[in-house]
Amino acid sequence: MLVGIISDTHENMQAISKAVEIFNLKAVKVVFHAGDIISPITFNYFSKLTCPIHLVFGNNDGEKKILKEKYSKIGSIQEPPLELELEGIKFVVFHAPPSNLEEIANSNKYDYIIYGHTHKKDLRTFGKTTIINPGEAGGWLFGEKNIVILDTETRYADFIEL
Fold it and tell me: Which of 46, 30, 6 is nearest to 136 (CA)?
């Protein structure tokens, strides 16, 4: 299964459009967004996805009621953590990395832990659990705009610059 991972878009519509284009081209089955979407206007871009999207709120997200209303049409959005099992694969999505991130990974409760907030790429494995932070898609902080395409069969996380 191919999974799209994105975070910290910070309302960069050009980056969101490019990410959606890549996710659709790669035919990902689902997209996870690890927060800092910012406002409901982003829905106009993410709604062009050909698969569901599951998002968590970040520390900069406003208008949560409208975000929930909009994104419930194409997936889900909630306060972190978001736990979801797809095809027997267990995911958990945070915005900010929890202080006990490595402890959670070492518990082997999840196959994948996804987070954002730091705007820095991260890819580590602890036992059966892989931790992924795609870095920032918005590019506002470090100037890099990245997403990840995860192949759950090969466990390969491909960092793609937008």
Answer: 6
